[in-house]
Amino acid sequence: MKLISKLANGIVVAALFASCGTAAAQVTVGVVVSTTGPGAVLGIPYRNVFEILPKEIAGEPVQYIVLDDASDVTTGVRNAKKLIDENKVDVLVGSNSVPVTRAMMQAVAEAQLPLLALSPMQLDGAEHPWAFGIPQPMALMMGAVLEHMKQEDVRNVGYIGFADAWGEAVYKTLEQQDVVPGLRLTSNERYQRNDVSITTQALKIIAGKPDAIVVGGSGAPGALPHIALSERGYKGTVYNTHGSVSGDFIRIGGTHAEGAVAPTGPFLFAAQLPDDNPIKPVAAKYLAMYDDAYGVQARSPFAGHDGVLARRCRR
Questions:
Q1: What pairs with residue 216 in β-bridges?
Q2: CA–CA separation, 270 vs 233, rounded Å?
Q3: Which residue, 135, 157, 172, sits at the end of a domain?
Q4: Closest Cα partner for 92 from 181, 170, 110?
Q5: Alpha helices in 53-96 (DSSP H)
Q6: pLDDT tens by residue, 80-124
Q7: Same structural domain for residues 122 and 239?
Q8: Sign of CA dihedral 207, 211, 216, 222
Q9: Using an 8 Å Cβ cutoff, are 250 and 257 in contact?
C-alpha cells in the first residue's frame, strides 16, 4: 500500500509546490502511457483512471494531459519533452514500459521535474533523484516466483524474455537470486515485443530440459512463449512476471497458458483478503470507482497503481 500511495503523495506534493505564492494555481500533470502498440494492454487501464480522476487536488484545480507513447522509446521521450517544454507540467507520470521510462528519466533530470514511474523499477535515489517508482519492484515480485520454485523443488530453469531493459531486469533478478539453492539457468533466449513467432527460441529452451521456464515478458506479448512452448509439447510449469497479469494475456494465451504461474498485487482480489488487511478497504473503494466507470470485466492490476489517487482525492 505504501508503494501504491506514492503516486497520490507525489502529485499532492507537486500541487503544493505549484501553489506556492499563488492563491489558485492550476496543477498540470503530464502522463505518458502506451495506448497503442504492444504495451497498450498495460497503458490503457492507466489512461482510464486519469480520465475519471477529480479535477481538484488539495483545493487546487488540476489538469491531466495524457499522451500515447505508442510503446516506442523515441515517441515517449518526444512526448515527455513536449509536456515539459510546451505544456509546462508540474509533474510527469509514466510510462508503463521500462525502456520508455528509462529514456524519459534523462529528460526529467535535465528539467529537474518529478517523474512518477508506472513501470517496476528499483531506483537509486542518489543516481536518479527526480524519479520515483510506483509498482512493486522486480525483486519483490520475482521473489514470490522463486519461493514457489523452491516449494516445487525446481532446480533447472529455462528463460526467455523481451530483448530490452525489462527482459534483462527479469533475467538479472533470477541470475542474482539467493532463494533457491543451486538454481541453474539453462537458457537465456530473447524476443521482440512485436514478434509473431519464436519457434527457434522455444526449441532451444526445450532442448535444455528445464524443470520450469520463466517468461520475462508483459502484457499480451507475454503470451507468445506459452503458445510456442505448448505447441512443441512442453509440459513443465511456465512462470511469468506481474506484467503479464491481464485479460488480454489470458485471451491470447488461451489453453496454451493453462497452469501459468504469475505474481500480482493483492488489491485486485480485495474481496479475498481478511478484514484486518490494511489494503482491503483501500482496494475495495478503488475497485468500486473503477467498476462503476468501466465495468467489472475491465479490471486491471495496472490501473490500481494510480487508482488509489482517485479515492484519496475524493475525500
A1: 161
A2: 36
A3: 135
A4: 110
A5: 73-85
A6: 999 999 999 999 999 998 899 999 999 999 999 999 999 888 788
A7: no
A8: positive
A9: yes
Residue 291 forms part of a structural domain? no
Cis peptide before 34 (omega within 30 of 0): no
Cell of 196: 509473431
The residue among 135, 163, 197 that closes a domain is 135
pLDDT tens-digit map of 192-238 = 999 999 999 999 999 999 999 999 999 889 999 999 999 999 999 99
Does the pTM of the predicted model rise above 0.85? Answer: no
HSE of 135, CA atoms in CB hemisphere, 13 A: 27
| Segment 160-190, tens digit of pLDDT | 999 998 999 999 999 999 999 999 999 999 9
Model pLDDT, residue 304: 72
Q: Residue 174 is part of a domain; what is its CATH number?
A: 3.40.50.2300
For the chain, how many structural domains are there in total?
2
Q: What is the pLDDT of residue 219?
A: 86
Shared-domain flag, residues 142 and 131? no
Give me the amino acid identity at 126.
Answer: A
Closest among 18, 82, 4, 24 to 286, alpha carbons compared: 4
- 266: cell is 493483492
What residues make up the domain containing 21? 2-135
Regarding whether 78 and 175 lie in a shared domain, the answer is no
Q: Which three cell numbers stand for residue 2?
A: 505504501
By CB atoms closer than 10 A (0-12, 13-18, 19+), residue 207 is: exposed
Cα separation, 228 vs 225, in Å, equals 5
Mean pLDDT lowest for which of 165-169, 257-261, 290-294, 305-309? 305-309
Check whether residue 168 and residue 211 sit in a common domain. Answer: yes
Helix residue spans in 182-302 (DSSP H):
199-207, 224-231, 247-253, 279-294
